[in-house]
Structure formats: structure tokens, C-alpha cells
Amino acid sequence: MFIAIDKIEQSAHHTDKLQNPKAPGNVMVLGIYRNKIRTALYIVNSKKTYGEYWDKIENKKIPKRLWTPEMKAFYKEKALEAPRPPYIFKITIIGWIFVLLMTGVFGMIVYNELKPPLPKSATYVAMEQAPAEGDIYFGRYEIYKEKGNPLGMEGRFGWFKVLQVEGDIYHIAKSTEMNKGHKPKEQLNSTDFETESMPPVKLTEQTGYNIRFLSDDGLTEIYITDKK
Questions:
Q1: Which residues pair with 50 in a beta bridge?
Q2: Is the pLDDT of residue 9 over 90?
Q3: Of 165, 170, 161, whose CA–CA distance to 137 is shortest?
Q4: Pairing of strands 3-14, 201-206
Q5: What transmembrane ranges does the database entry give (predicted)?
Q6: Average pLDDT value for residue range 158-179
Q7: CA-to-CA distance for 157 and 201, rounded, in angstroms?
Q8: In angstroms, rounded to a whole number, what is the distance separating the alpha carbons of residues 153 and 140?
Q9: What is the number of alpha carbons within 13 Å of residue 40 lying toward its C-beta?
């Protein structure tokens, strides 16, 4: 981020009564300064001042380690007379834009956390209910010849009916009309089903959007997307 520190002179004082510790014959001048820090977001004027003694003849700053007690006392006296900065902290126009943006972001976060959840749709609620005997669903099945190998896999879209539930085992029959490609569910038979079920499966995943069944051998999968 852009940052600049400027040295701002507050006042300058002649020091005729003080002796130059480095070159006794040379005249000194005391400068009182503040730092001004500028960034793209804010500007800061330091509250505390600092002083520098300069040799006017050689135009060199006198190191602070050489300051005499009289020089230190003179600086303290003049520092109290230094004008106050116009402000200590000020936000820039870009800073205000940033503050407003962050306020909006945090406001949206708080709003999203506190707002009541949207009511669930009837379709979502139906898909969340545990499958029971007689339930009819739309989806797709995949039967593999070899687990993890898609070669020779049989896949169809259509309607399914839960024939029987035994604990966590589901016996599901597919419609007498299943389609290789995906068609709108309204165009497929949802009333006539085979009398025998597919291989028994277990429920492995259920949300308001999908239900997944899988056989113990991993060769038969049924993906449900809608409930009748």
C-alpha cells in the first residue's frame, strides 16, 4: 500500500546563548518538526514533536548524543511553544469509500447471519423424508459389470418404486419404461413397474436435492432427483 512520511517544520529558533558542542565557534539553529504520514486511506500528523540542532556554518546536523543539558532544556521549552497540528488523524476520500464498502460488506454478513431461513419448498421437504414402501421417485440407475469400470455399464433414466424396506435395505423396482437418454419425467411411465426389484441397495446420501442408493457390492447405483 502507498505510504509516505514527510518531515514538517513547526518552528525554527536561533541559539545565540548556546555553545555548539562540536564546533564551539559556529552558530546553531534549532528546528522543531513533526512527521506527517500519508497513505491512500488516511493521513496522520504525529502528536509528538522532535528537535534538530543544525550547524549553520557547516550546514550539518549535530548528533543528539552530543546535546548538552542546556540544549535539551532549550528544546523542551520551545517544543511547548510549537503550534498544534491541524488534526491528528483524517480519512481520505478513498479511505471513506473503503470504510463505506467494508461497512456494507459486514452489514451483509450480519444480515445473512441473522435473517430467518427461507421456507423449504414442498419438493425439498418431500425429498428429505425417509423413503418408505410405495414411494415413487424419478432418477437414473447404473449397473456395472466391474466396480469402478464404466465399460459395459448399463444406465437408464426413469421412474422407480420402493417395493419393500427391511431395516436399512431397500428393494426398489424400476419402471417398465426406462430411457437411455434423459427425457422430461412427465413423458415417461410412472405407473407401471416391474414386479421384481433390482439388486437390494442401501441409502448412502439424502438431501433436499438428491437421494443416492448403492448396493453392497458397489455394482448398482440409483440416483434420485425427484419424488412423485
A1: 33
A2: yes
A3: 161
A4: unpaired
A5: 87-111
A6: 94
A7: 17
A8: 13
A9: 6
Name the nearest CA neighbour of 135 among 161, 117, 114: 161
Pair 24, 41: CB distance under 8 Å: no
Q: Which residue in the block uniquely carries the three cell numbers 421384481? A: 196
Mean pLDDT calculated for residue range 165-169? 93
pTM for this entry: 0.52
**In the structure, what pLDDT confidence band is assigned to residue 100 with cuts at 50, 70 and 90?**
very high
Please give the grid coordinates belonging to residue 70: 542546556
Express each pLDDT in 104-131 by its tens digit: 999 999 988 888 888 888 888 888 888 9
One-letter amino acid at 192 equals D
Mean pLDDT, rounded, for 35-48: 93
Angle formed at CA 218 by CA 214 and CA 222, multiple of 5 degrees: 30
- Separation CA 106–CA 1 (nearest Å): 22
> Degrees (nearest 5) of the Cα angle 129, 134, 140?
75
Q: Which three cell numbers stand for residue 222?
A: 440409483
